[in-house]
Amino acid sequence: MGTGSSTRGQSIAVRPVQSATINDKGVKQQLSSTPIIPPKQPENHTIYSVEGTQKQSIEKEENAMNSTKDEITKGDNTAPATTDLSTEDKTVEKTPRSDGDQKDQPAETGVSKSAVKSASEEQEEHDDTATKSEEKTKTVLTEEDIEVLKTQAFKSVEKNLAILSDIEGHLRENGLFNQDFKRATFNLQSANFALKKASFEVNKNFKEELGDVIVELGGVKTVCDVVVFCQKKGYYSAEDKLIQGIWIPLINCTIVLINFTDGSPKYAPLLAEHGEFLSSVSEALQQMQTKHLENNIREKDQKLLESYLSIIHNMAQSETTVTELRDHGFVELHLPFLKSSNDKVLLTCLATLADLVDESQAKHLETDGEFFKFLLKFLKSAISDKHRRCKGWSARELARTIRRISKNDVNKKGLVSQGCLPVLVSLTESAYEDEQIEAFGALWMLSFDKENQDVILQDDSVMGSLLKNRTSQCKKIKNSCNGALWNMREKLSSIAKYKELGKEFRRDEQEKAPSVGEGRGHVMISYQWANQPLIKKIRDSLQENGIKCWMDIDDMQGSTLNAMARAVERADIVLICYSKKYYDSPNCRAEAEYAFTLKKPMIPLKMERNYQAREWLGFILGSKLFFEFTDKYPFESKMSALIKEVLTRQKKSVPDKPIISHTAPVTTEKKETMGSKPKVKAQASEVVKNWKENDVLRWINHHKLPSSKFSSLTGMEIAFLQVLRQESPDFFYKTLNEMLKIKDLPTLAKFAFALEDTLV
């Protein structure tokens, strides 16, 4: 792993942060009750600060600028106050530095993935002290207090984003930002902590609302603009002196983006849509990579590197940004960091790559098992920690990383051989359902490997956990347990104590399988949910040509597993609608492998451009002729060819011109006719019907609509409002007024005009 300036193994004593005074309303009563279960901390709520305040740093930098000095000042980044710095009498949190690496910490980020945190591997002293401190100082905020603090935070965000949107207007003659601009970046990132004294749920909801406000105000672009500008400008002088007039805005804005992508993950794609942000981050990481790996990197460069890695990690957890990140080369960019001697950097990169690598790149995570040992060591520590954390990473996050790594077959055996099963079983007994979900999900993934099945079947603790929870009230846990047992159904019958369970699965197959000579069945469509709108369109076109189809949104009855098995068994053709997301899904794999086992005729439909099926999926599809349903070809031509192929296999008559569906309605709906309406608008409405959540958010952001009012709308609802506005304007405006509570004319006008422009 390397040595040098590694922080691995060092024990850093961190004292609990003293609570800042919010206002007189903040303290209502003291709590001293003891929780029934361990006091699990929010996944991204560990806060650190250093001696001095950033406000003082800004003032010192101002004085330094007046004397033409651009030198580093002590404590240039510290814990933020909870209100705007422009007011007076602030009480700011302080904590003495525990070692040199914590000097000049950025303002508190509260982000577990960021190596900005410096929690020790052995956190007992900190945890004990923090728990006692919480019992003594924790306060209850009334609903009135919460609303006041939220309002103050939202107003502060609006004010400070307005300042940051004018980059050129806040530059001095020497090319550095003025004091107002630096304060604005500090205040903006401080807003994230306005409700840190509130409960976990209240704080979580607030951060989601804060994300809505930032998006509504166009803040994502504004903050990304500042980061890109500062990165291009450079934060070191020719004499290698830190230029704080650039550094402070840069590091504060990266902190804003870390907390934003963590608190509002649904908005992560907006960063990818910025014209220069990903390219700027990629270039910066490339420049810092060698110095970091040689343990010869400047302190501020290291902080920025860690912040950028944290942002990319948060973005990688959003499936809609994975392709964008891969296209920008972040897989290749992260791979060298696997040689880092810094635990936090290594862990962040491992977790990011777990989301980004495809089947051909998964081998980079295997090596000699050292990465798996490293990851399991962290997970063990988090499980034994009373706050369920290790170096800022929660047990859930670490288990998720294991689950994501195990999706690739090349890693399945390695994880089990390094002892992941006992650790995962321990997590299945957690008091927290989110941890259980990740643990059982990982076990399901691992159970697809035949050798792993033998190990699992011989492990009473693993089998006991799967059997105990196969009837869980949690659908995800139940599905994972039954999925793992289903994978092992053939071997269960040969083991005495599991023989009855094996017979149960085998009996289901035999009873449901259609007899020889039975009438032809349906076309079963196996797909991943991300492609559902297009799949529904394909299904409708097939059905309009007399082809009976099955897809789970129509015929789901009983358990997911039984419904899937019955659908495959009664099908005479199975359409495999494949993509990377299909490959990653254990449900999809179970369907495809079962169809392959039953020797069902399969027709592959390629749903992702340039995707190549490998490993188990490549084995199943082989060299079969596939139909590509991407933007590479017109839908009509491929759909016509597919219809002819299916009808030919079913030995039915093939029409010269098959009927092609141009809409994607649910089967029970009647098609709307647009009469004499312009064709382009009708087509736009049909496109809008299929919008996913991210499409809606992009449209809202493009037209600067208040997301707090419109983000809950679906594509189908927006398309309906388009039609309603044309067919019944009076009812349209009544709907906006009564159902969406839109009463002000500016918002009505913006929304009405936005409906005219949905081609974004």
UniProtKB/TrEMBL annotation:
Biased composition (Polar residues): 1-10, 44-56, 75-85
UniProt xrefs under Pfam families: TIR_2
Source species, domain of life: Eukaryota
Residue ranges with Basic and acidic residues bias: 57-74, 87-106, 128-138
Listed GO biological process terms: signal transduction
Signal peptide: none
Gene3D superfamilies, per database record: Leucine-rich Repeat Variant (1.25.10.10), Toll/interleukin-1 receptor homology (TIR) domain (3.40.50.10140)
Region (Disordered): 1-138
Domain TIR: 523-636
PANTHER family according to UniProt: ARMADILLO-TYPE FOLD-RELATED (PTHR46270), TIR DOMAIN-CONTAINING PROTEIN (PTHR46270:SF2)
The protein, known as: Uncharacterized protein LOC111138472
